[in-house]
Amino acid sequence: MRIARFTTGDEPLFGIVTGDLDEYGQPDPDAQIVALAGDPIYAGINPLDQTHRLADVRLLAPVIPRSKVVAIGKNYADHVVEMGGATGELPPEPLMFLKPNTSVIGPGDPIVYPRQSENVHFEGELAIVIGRICKDVPVERAADVIYGWTIANDVTARDLQKSDGQWSRAKGFDTFCPLGPWIETELTLDEVKAGLRVQTFLEGEVKQDGNTRDLIFDVPTIIAHVSAAMTLLPGDVILTGTPAGVGPMEPGQEVEISIERLGALTNPVKK
């Protein structure tokens, strides 16, 4: 099931997106969205007598995290190397940091290039949406707390990341966490482990081409590690890390992140 958050110009609603995705992750031209009563994470699936053509609505971020976005850094070996780590210098445990929920935007929303930076990078990632309050989740219970999956762009001001010596500002600007286009609820942990292709395109050119089978720390390990430190709330989002190929994007360009089974998330960049 693909759950989106959308607007027709009025108050945002949640809905179920129907139809298949093509090989590029784009929905069927005749896809529709069936509106739901309330937020399905809290209220369950309660369809309204209201259906729209998907092409006629504006998709929003499919979830606004109730408290936080937790991100995992350096979780693909090839990305560790490109960031300056020698072979064998993989992190001994998941490297965790936070992005504020005010950094979240949706499909088509512009990533705003901050005046404080001259080197803003894209980072395409698989994202986990948490479905229940949880703490100290054992690895074998990880699936119980996952509501679904979406696509994320962990936008980073690389120069500020280096100069600050920590990552809060570099990764926390408004618009630095695009999410979307919807939440896929039927993807399984086994499918993620078997491998989903993760690609990032800048102006149509492939920049990142990775696969979730290459995660250093798998999703159950990530959830166990994060929840051992902090309580997770329904709607919280965990970013699982980015493969090699990160790089700069400039105002006027467009970045698209595509993940198998999940579709594609596209955002323009502007000053």
Indicate the topology.
Layout: E1 2-7, E2 13-17, E3 32-36, H1 40-43, E4 47-53, E5 58-60, E6 69-73, H2 77-82, E7 95-99, E8 104-105, E9 111-112, E10 120-122, E11 124-130, E12 146-153, E13 156-157, H3 158-164, H4 168-172, E14 177-184, H5 189-194, E15 197-202, E16 205-211, H6 219-229, E17 237-239, E18 247-248, E19 254-259, E20 263-270
Parallel strand pairs: 6-17, 8-14, 9-20
Antiparallel strand pairs: 1-2, 1-5, 1-14, 2-3, 3-4, 6-7, 10-13, 10-18, 11-12, 11-17, 12-14, 15-16, 15-19, 19-20
Explain the overall architecture.
The structure is a single chain. The chain has helices at residues 40-43, 77-82, 158-164, 168-172, 189-194, 219-229; strands at 2-7, 13-17, 32-36, 47-53, 58-60, 69-73, 95-99, 104-105, 111-112, 120-122, 124-130, 146-153, 156-157, 177-184, 197-202, 205-211, 237-239, 247-248, 254-259, 263-270. It is mainly β. It has two domains: 2-60, SH3 type barrels (Roll); 69-270, Fumarylacetoacetate hydrolase, domain 2 (Alpha-Beta Complex). The strands form three sheets. Strands 1, 2, 3, 4, 5, 6, 7, 8, 11, 12, 14 and 17 form a twelve-stranded mixed β-sheet that branches. Strands 9-20-19-15-16 form a five-stranded mixed β-sheet, with no helix packed on it. A hairpin with a 5-residue loop joins β1 (2-7) and β2.
